[in-house]
Amino acid sequence: MKELELKYGCNPNQKPSKIYMGDGGELPIQVLNGKPGYINFLDAFNGWQLVKELKRATGLPAATSFKHVSPAGAAVGLPLSDVESRIYWVDDLGELSPLASAYARARGADRMSSYGDFIALSDVCDVSAAKVIKREFSDGIIAPGYEPEALELLKEKKKGAYAIIQIDENYEPEAIEHKEVYGITFEQGRNELNIDDEFFSNVVTENKDIPEQAKIDMAIAMITLKYTQSNSVCFVKGGQAIGIGAGQQSRIHCTRLAGSKADNWLLRQSPQVLNLPFKAEMKRADRDNAIDLYMGEDYMDVLGDGNWEKYFTEKPAVFTGEEKAEWLSKATDVVCGSDAFFPFDDNVERAFRSGVKYIAQPGGSIRDQDVIDACNRHGIAMAFTGLRLFHH
């Protein structure tokens, strides 16, 4: 297949639309089911690159949950704790495969943003992963292959219209890439990087102790940022992104957004949230929405008289600011990555409040010393990578 006609481009009025190889060669993909759209393919190809690099960097199966050309979550296939299984709504599925665990983590990092995602998997989709994916609202998936039973499970989604793409895992694009804007062609070399331990060897703070798990999390942060619309900041813990701040013009806004999402991820693990008395018939998406409201400033939308009865068998107590602060004070060992330098030390101060203990960023600001001093005040270890990772 040398080209594939699409229904329309980014929007229904943008016609005609298609994907094809500039050199006239064969596309490195097969559409096994459904009719992926223009934005689906943008998410698919960016997501595939992300998980391919995550696996190369960590040696572990990887998954990402993409929405509007940025990852809502990304993770590698480490086992889930009992609490993680509960907050990701997979505790009834038994033991998950590493690939299934990777997707449960990627989806669970920010379940509100992941609703209606496009999935990318680094490995052949197995039955365990397909069972996790089948129960979630999603637009489609890209993977290097599918076990026969897994493929049949996925084909049942969206009344048979679920988009399923298989990509040639050996495909390598040209070293030079192009894009058009306003009829003008842009050309640049592909952003090829080898992110390994050496990438984080320039530790510029007094604390120079970065353990192996933190280096893995740093790699996850930087690879995730490489495929996130800039400006962007990513918080990672235990093999998964827990907060991504994407596409903000101000870096501190990226850090605040990533930090607030990381805080929500941690708050979901609190007894107040884990023990919410949901009605048995409540769907996962409705529970996610109720939890998000319950943890936030608009909690009366689910706790007010006439409202709580829609969600709960009994009225929960308010999750007070003091209780949330106490729970969040337990956060630690979080990694923060930034796609460009921190221009002010306020980014470090905000990251520290979400348990950040390790930072990876390019460096190069005229205020680098202010940022280093802020890290030293809080005992944070920070590595300068020397390489910016803007993505547009």
Give the arrangement of secondary structure elements.
Elements: E1 3-6, E2 17-20, E3 29-33, H1 38-58, E4 62-67, E5 70-76, H2 82-87, H3 98-108, H4 111-114, E6 117-121, H5 127-134, E7 138-143, H6 148-155, E8 163-167, E9 176-181, E10 184-189, H7 212-226, E11 232-237, E12 240-246, H8 251-267, H9 271-274, H10 284-295, H11 300-303, H12 321-328, E13 334-338, H13 346-353, E14 356-361, H14 368-378, E15 381-384
Helix pairs in contact: 1-7, 3-5, 5-6, 8-13, 13-14
Description:
The protein is an alpha/beta fold. It folds into three domains: 3-167, Cytidine Deaminase, domain 2 (3-Layer(aba) Sandwich), CATH 3.40.140; 176-267 and 328-384, Cytidine Deaminase, domain 2 (3-Layer(aba) Sandwich); 271-318, no CATH class. It is 35% helix and 21% strand. It is built from 14 helices and 15 strands. The strands form four sheets. A six-stranded mixed beta sheet has the order 3-8-7-6-4-5. It has a five-stranded mixed beta sheet with strand order 12-11-13-14-15, sandwiched between helices. Helix 1 packs antiparallel against helix 7 (212-226), helix 8 (251-267) packs parallel to helix 13 and helix 13 packs parallel to helix 14 (368-378). The radius of gyration is 21 Å and the shape is globular.
Mean pLDDT: 95
Largest beta sheet, briefly? 6 strands, mixed
Low-pLDDT stretches: none
Strand content: 15-25%
What general outline do the C-alpha atoms trace? globular
Radius of gyration: 21 Å
CATH-defined fold name of the largest domain: Cytidine Deaminase, domain 2
Q: What's the total number of strands?
A: 15
* CA(first)-CA(last) distance: 28 Å
Approximate helicity band: 25-40%
**For the largest beta sheet, what order do the strands appear in spatially?**
3-8-7-6-4-5
By CATH, the architecture of the largest domain is named 3-Layer(aba) Sandwich
CATH superfamily of the largest domain: AICAR transformylase, duplication domain
- Quaternary assembly: single chain
Reading the helices and strands in chain order gives EEEHEEHHHEHEHEEEHEEHHHHHEHEHE
Structural class: alpha/beta
